[in-house]
Specification:
The protein is of the alpha+beta class. It folds into four domains: 64 residues, no CATH class; 121 residues, no CATH class; 162 residues, Rossmann fold, CATH 3.40.50; 63 residues, no CATH class. The chain has 15 helices and 17 strands. Strands 11-10-12-13-14-15 form a six-stranded mixed β-sheet. Strands 1, 2, 3, 4 and 5 form a five-stranded antiparallel β-sheet that branches. A four-stranded antiparallel β-sheet has the order 6-7-8-9. It starts with 5 loop residues before the first strand and ends with a helix.
Length: 453
Amino acid sequence: MPNYRYILDTSPRKFRCPDCGKKKFVKYIDTTTGEYLPENYGRCDREANCNYHFNPYKDGYSKMIREKENGNNSDWKPNPIPKAKPIPPPPAPTFIPGEVLRQTLTGYDKNTFLQNLLSRVAYPLAGTDIEKVVELYYLGTILDGFRAGAITFPFIDKGGNVRTIQVKEFNETNHTTGTGFYHSMLSNQYKQNNEPLPAWLEGYERNEKKVSCLFGEHLLKQYPTNPIALVEAPKTAIYGTLYFGFPDVPENMLWLAVYNLSSLSFEKVEALQGRRVVLFPDLSKKGKAFDLWQGKAIEFNKRLPATKFVVSDLLESKATEAEKESGLDLADYLIKLDFRLFRSKKPPPELEVIESKPAPKSVKGEKYERSENIYFFPKPEQPAPELWPIDELEKYFNEISIPDESIIISQCETILNPRLFIENQISETKAHNGQPYFKAGFERLVSLKKALT
């Protein structure tokens, strides 16, 4: 097989095609120098729709270079480069209307993901915290169809535009069993009913990208000074908020997500200009995810002035090989721990966060060196409240007949086993009466009493 001096770039990098204007253009590279040929030499990947291909062998470039290298000063000229068409600006994206988003903001008592956090995990979270995180991120529920009970994660940009709504199905251990997008579900419903698509949906399906902003990006204006925690999936951002605290405390992290590992891009992180950002990649075989995000952090630090990106090696430094092979994320570790431990001033030692930073020189094969240990969940000390009247509540529950069926105590919270719930919460509240981080359990008992009366 012959070795060619000029080959099409094999990297994933693409440019705007000089003919059709789409970012599908692959340039030719001179293998002796590693540099790109003049800008119009390349091929558009849209072979069926564009078919632009300016070849250095067929269009004279290789002969011209050969003549020059042989010292031939003849007047021979290569074929002229075709005149590029003016590249039209990309069409304005179509956003999902607000009323479509509002359709999902209901049915929280049937939301498997949220109900798991309230009653099925080892350390159930407080209903007030669940309600707060629902309002913060506009979490919703799918009520009908084969994805009934799934949670919706809307991606809303800094301008308040709904870019997309991800749909995720979870089992009772909060592991993903299915995923999709709300616009696809709506489109399928219209087609199955032989109904025309609404104008917004027709335009939306023509968008070049659907996931085109960060999950939680709409919160950047509301919390302009908080440091940023950036993870892969919305689920992990929700866990991070519930465990490490809400951004109404300026020192707390504002948790955002990119969607998945390969979705971390400069176009998305531009919204983080001027912030301090800590990246938390998921685990992966041989640390490939960690290495990928390290490289991205180097690029972003160079391209975004006054912005600092660092990569946490919290998981990478502590995980076993089996855990790396399984691709665990931060949420998989958090859910096994008591969230109340994270609300104290001193963090639990097993969750010490060690950041990484790039070496001073930017060279090929650049290494990361460890920086100082950084704890990112300080909270101001809170005065201990007065003791709660748990004896009165215990007397009340002992004197009434406790129903066997589940009881709804708030829009987001359903008590599946009232008897077991009362027994556990009374015991725990007695053991920690007056300690601020156990007040949520007492408040849930009060809510249950109100529901029963």
